Amino acid sequence: MTRIGEIAALSAALLWTSTSLIIERKGKNISPTILNFYRMFLGLILVSLVMFFKKGFFISKGSSLNPWLWLMGSGVIGFAFGDVFLFKSYQLIGARLTLLIYSFNPVIITMLSFLIFGEKLSLINLLGIIVIFCGILLVVTKKKVDKLRGKNINFYDLIPAFMACFGQAVGVIFSKLGMVTLDPLDATQMRLAGGLIGMIILLFVSKNLKGIVNLNWDKDSYLTIGYVSIIGTFIAVFLSMIAIKNTPAAIASILMSTQPVLILPISRIFTKEKVQLVEIIGAFMTFLGVALLILK
To answer: Which of 57, 58, 128, 139 could be a cystine partner for 282, CB 3.0 to 4.6 Å?
Structure first.
């Protein structure tokens, strides 16, 4: 039986993991808000060009207005709303603790999927989710625990991470609702359009529209924006739409949430960062969970 949905989800997670390293290493001089705008702007152009060569038109015609509304809403909530809180959480409590909280995203999606789609998981699927979840928690908690000692973090500092988690979960559900009659390419274009509109509104409200042109265009900026736009947005978002289209939302989400573990071998290869035993154990647990998760 084909596993295109599961393969697409893991591929998207891998590309997003590599994107996070590029942003960390090369994108320090770019505002996250401006980077978010450019990645959606350029990603939307690329998707539209592919659509023109494949279908003969630049803008998805869609079957009705309803899919447009769901998918553009997904872009606004998941890309604009969710990512803004995600970046804010990174600034307040750091990436590791943020990812720990962000790991609850599949739980929210599972609850929403049960209520909206009636999606059911087998016992072995549930076991796979638990194993993956424990592997992620083991790795993220171990990496962050030493840095948390002596640092005063209150409840309000955690709110942005929970808001980002909720925004991403709702974005996935909206995508699922909008893709009933559409293919992943149409869905990707609509979602990016919604995210771009959301970012323009956000930049206007924050009076930061000038930041779009007042960018420090150095070599690292070009590399970061190009990589994030093509790999992290155009290709990875398209793969995520394939995953959501062909896989239950909860499974697609948990597979795309393996980034904290996938970053271990990638960072070891490209940055020579030392990997601890507990991280290897966490990675093994995660991939064991993936094996259990895709069994029917």
So the answer is: 139
pTM (predicted TM-score): 0.77
pLDDT digits (tens, 9 = 90+) for 42-73: 989 999 998 888 888 887 766 677 888 899 99
Query: Domain-by-domain residue ranges, the chain?
Result: 4-293
Q: Residue ranges of the alpha helices (H) in 75-183?
A: 82-93, 95-102, 105-116, 123-148, 155-178
Q: How many alpha carbons fall within 13 Å on the CB side of residue 44?
A: 19
Number of H helices, E strands in the chain: 14, 0
Cα angle 181, 296, 173; round to 5: 35
SS (H, E, C) 43-62: HHHHHHHHHHHHHCCCCCCC
Average pLDDT on 14-29 reads 78
